[in-house]
Design brief:
The protein is built from three helices and seven strands. By secondary structure, the chain is an alpha+beta fold. The chain has one domain: RelE-like (YaeB-like fold), CATH 3.30.2310.20.
Length: 123
């Protein structure tokens, strides 16, 4: 699996990293354990998506864009996978590539992702 990052994602990640010290370690673990291929029993590998990851619909684009709602962060003790950190990524099945688009901490309600940014980068 190949990973890439938008510049905006890197800036947001650095800002959150100042507040949540374990974010880099938690993010690496997320990429290693969650964003992987799993064997489907027939010898083929399929991209596995756990229940805490939902596809964002109504974007009007062909690219598969997903929101991670259950991201576990050790700095936010007692909250488990409902830490409040949201990650948006685009998945390209033909290239087995994931591109990270946005990361943010939801405040009171689950504000929607930056759909304008997604439409600007993907078709």
């Amino acid at each position: 699996m190949e990973f890439s990052y938008l510049d905006e994602f890197n800036k947001e990640f650095k800002q959150l990293l100042k507040k949540y010290r374990t974010l880099q370690e938690d993010f690496d673990l997320f990429k290693e354990r969650v964003l992987t291929y799993r064997e489907n029993g027939t010898g083929k590998f399929l991209f596995w998506r756990p229940p805490g990851i939902v596809r964002i619909s109504n974007l009007g684009i062909e690219t598969e864009v997903y929101k991670v709602k259950h991201f576990s962060c050790k700095t936010l003790k007692g909250r488990g996978s409902r830490s409040g950190i949201r990650i948006i990524y685009a998945y390209f099945p033909d290239n087995t590539k994931v591109e990270f688009v946005e990361i943010y901490f939801k405040e009171r309600d689950d504000t929607d992702c930056d759909k304008d940014r997604i439409k600007r980068y993907y078709k």
